[in-house]
Amino acid sequence: MHGHMMQQSLLISNLLVHAERHHATQEIVSRRVEGDVHRYTFKELAQRARTMANALQALGAKPGARIATLAWNGYRHMELYYAVSGSGAVLHTLNPRLHSEQLSYIMDHAEDQILFFDLTFLPLVESIAGLVKSCKLFVAMTDRAHMPLSKLEGLLCYEDLISSYPDQFAWPDLDENSASSLCYTSGTTGNPKGVLYSHRSTVLHTYAGALPDALNCSAQDVILPVVPMFHVNAWGLPYIACMTGAKLVFPGPALDGKSLYELFEAEQVTLSAGVPTVWQGLLNYVENQRLAFSSMRRTIIGGAACPPAMMKTFQNNFQVHVLHAWGMTELSPVGTVCSFKAAQLQLSKAEQEAVQTKQGRVVFGVDMKIVDDQGLELPWNGQASGELMVRGPWIVREYFKGEGGDPLVDGWFPTGDVATIDAQGFMQITDRAKTSSNLGGSGLVLSTSKISPCRIRPLPWPPASPPITPNGTNARCFW
Ligand code: AMP
């Protein structure tokens, strides 16, 4: 017997419709590549996303078409998150840290048709344009006044598209299993592999990610995702903000400690998320200048193990609680978050800090186990360590176009991470499996793939800020 409840597809466009209807005046604040700070509301986001959906259709983006972005965290990138996926196309976020040879391989493999890019990346786009066979349309994510002189034939202007189309668009009632976005992960062996997310997997991940024992987001939060929107959907925060009605603050290209701190304070950020290297830059600045955080209460640290000293500095010196999290591109990405159970609140500070060095417990929807070399499940005693295997509705089943064959073992995805799990279900990464087929780290992908081994461009630290002069020409090369 079936239940008698409504059948409604889980769609990314529904998140935006909800945000516009219930949080219309909530703000999205973005530091722009053009150098200034831009501010608008969820209502304007929804209007411009609908306009962009019309523009995409006019440019020939059919359902399932892959539309690529090379962009920082900002409101135009957010509009594309919703316009592309909501209209039935597939948002392919590209990692600008990759070498042009790798990028062009990935774009051709994905068969990207249109590339939207921030002005910072113009030189990179010009270097790959001739190499990529599939992509014929390029859109600079800026206004007419900042359009650069470029070798790119027929280069389009984002704001021209926005002003050319109506803001009425009926989001299609897609099959919830339709593909929504695509992110590639580089391997230690073989070619880069695409992880193709669906509307259903994304919305389920959004529900789970927002939960109190996960990323713990609400309409009272002001969230600044430092973690890039070009890598695994900025850990789901652009979707979580629409679901919860949290204010969003985007740092754009300015990821140095001073720029981040100023934005945290000006916008009264309560929650942030990023990899340890970003936080080190921020902490150095705040400590050297003898500053304090007036509003920030929590920060999510993942992508690499959070150093215990960093955790202590945040918590003891700045009263910012650290949420240590683990995930992967193949997991959309959230797998585990280290949030306390009630009994752990009674522990001493030192004991709590020891718990927090672990990557934490699964959010509902993710199932995990550790196995030995023979694939036999190991006990959860905090001692036995083995390869971490996961399964769940937002975990990859196969890579895009079947690259690399069937990745699953008896229905479980082998993560390549080696871990222990304690009796309370807290997982701790201890190593990487020798046989691992991926080597990740939230955006800083180290690849020895067949395409171009070890040819990643590291971003300078701190990055130039802002990299673009007001008239739109590059002040200096970002790399
Ligand atoms: P990526 O798919 O590029 O985001 O990289 C995922 C990989 O980053 C995982 O398989 C881990 O090896 C590593 N990773 C992510 N979060 C953590 C963490 N909190 N501690 C240690 N390693 C992590």
Any overview of this molecule?
- By secondary structure, the protein is α/β, with parallel strands linked by helices.
- It contains twelve helices and 20 strands.
- The strands form three sheets. A nine-stranded mixed sheet has the order 2-1-11-10-12-13-14-15-16, with helices on both faces. It has a seven-stranded mixed sheet with strand order 7-6-5-3-4-8-9, with helices on both faces.
- α11 links the parallel β13 and β14.
- The protein is globular, with a radius of gyration of 22 Å.
- The protein starts with 11 loop residues before the first helix and ends in a 47-residue tail after the last strand.
- 52% of the residues are buried.
- The C terminus is likely disordered.
- Bound molecules: adenosine monophosphate.
List keywords for this structure.
479 residues; alpha/beta; seven-stranded mixed beta sheet; 27% helix; disordered C terminus
Task: Provide a short characterization of the protein structure.
The protein is an alpha/beta fold. Helix content is 27%, strand content 21%. The chain has 12 helices and 20 strands.
What is the element layout, followed by pairings?
Blueprint: H1 12-22, E1 27-31, E2 37-41, H2 42-58, E3 66-70, H3 75-86, E4 90-93, H4 100-110, E5 112-117, H5 122-129, E6 137-140, E7 156-157, H6 158-164, E8 179-185, E9 193-198, H7 199-210, E10 222-225, H8 237-244, E11 247-250, H9 257-266, E12 271-274, H10 276-288, E13 298-301, H11 308-318, E14 321-327, E15 334-337, H12 349-356, E16 361-362, E17 367-371, E18 386-391, E19 413-421, E20 427-432
Parallel strand pairs: 1-11, 3-4, 3-5, 4-8, 5-6, 6-7, 10-11, 10-12, 12-13, 13-14
Antiparallel strand pairs: 1-2, 8-9, 14-15, 15-16, 17-18, 18-19, 19-20
This protein binds adenosine monophosphate.
